[in-house]
């Protein structure tokens, strides 16, 4: 994840991206509530407002988020997991002059890397016949509607231990009156990189993934 952002200074000129309040400069741009959505040549999507931009790459598991001061100098850089909430990678904060003032390492204390977890996800996607992209640099589907086939990766602490979770979703349309989704949830111990729980089940389409911590 280090290659996505770094501690270098940046300055952003928003005037190059907008002709006016309501008109973007490039033909592949659109304005929604004063936010510019620009589709780049590689199909990445750039979301721009008057104080931040968010790059939503077509490939990979993370979006890149940057905030800027009114003078255009960088204020903050960080990344966000496309498939779930949580803190990942490093966050860089700068003062108004562009001097780096703080680095927060969200990976501190975690032993298993996100990339290692994607390799486990790839293994189980094949085993259970989930036809979704799981590679670290793959095109990840972040549209988590019940009818879509998708994979989600997240992590959390429970009773003093750290865990990674992988969730797979697949819709089944055989009976339109009883729509169900096929689910697979894998629990990984962060310290040992071992799978400590696996739950393959069917559930109603609008429910969250079942986490092992909540089992009765």
Read across the widest sheet, the strand sequence of neighbours is 1-2-3-4-5-6-7-8
Instruction: Provide the residue-averaged pLDDT.
Output: 84
Q: Span between N and C termini?
A: 36 Å
How much beta, percentage-wise? Answer: 35-45%
Low-confidence stretches: 19-34
Oligomer: single chain
Number of domains: 2
Shape: globular
Helix content: under 10%
Structural class label: mainly beta
Largest sheet: 8 strands, antiparallel
The secondary-structure element order is EEEEEEEEHEEEE
User: How large is the radius of gyration?
Assistant: 20 Å
Structure in words:
- Helices cover 6% and strands 40% of the residues.
- By secondary structure, the protein is mainly beta.
- It has 2 domains: 14-105, no CATH class; 114-203, no CATH class.
- It is globular and about 55 Å long.
- It starts with 28 loop residues before the first strand and ends in a 12-residue tail after the last strand.
- Residues 19-34 have low confidence and may be disordered.
- This is MORN repeat variant.
Task: Give the helix/strand layout.
Blueprint: E1 29-32, E2 35-39, E3 45-48, E4 52-56, E5 62-68, E6 74-81, E7 88-94, E8 100-105, H1 114-127, E9 150-158, E10 161-172, E11 180-189, E12 195-204
């Amino acid at each position: 994840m280090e290659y996505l952002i770094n501690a270098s200074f940046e300055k952003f000129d928003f005037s190059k991206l907008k002709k006016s309040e309501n008109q973007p400069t490039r033909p592949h741009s659109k304005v929604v509530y004063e936010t510019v959505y620009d589709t780049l040549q590689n199909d990445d999507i750039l979301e721009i407002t008057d104080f931040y931009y968010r790059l939503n790459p077509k490939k990979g598991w993370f979006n890149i988020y940057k905030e800027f001061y009114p003078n255009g100098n960088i204020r903050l850089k960080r990344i966000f997991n496309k498939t779930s909430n949580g803190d990942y990678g490093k966050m860089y904060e700068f003062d108004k002059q562009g001097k780096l003032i703080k680095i927060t390492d969200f990976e501190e204390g975690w032993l298993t890397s996100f990339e290692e977890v994607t390799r486990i996800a790839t293994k189980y996607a094949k085993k259970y016949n989930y036809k979704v992209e799981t590679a670290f640099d793959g095109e990840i589907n972040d549209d988590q509607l019940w009818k879509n086939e998708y994979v989600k990766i997240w992590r959390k602490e429970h009773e003093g231990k750290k865990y990674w979770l992988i969730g797979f979703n697949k819709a089944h349309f055989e009976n339109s009156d009883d729509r169900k989704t096929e689910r697979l949830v894998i629990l990984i111990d962060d310290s040992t990189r071992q799978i400590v729980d696996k739950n393959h089940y069917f559930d109603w389409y609008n429910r969250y993934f079942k986490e092992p911590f909540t089992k009765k």
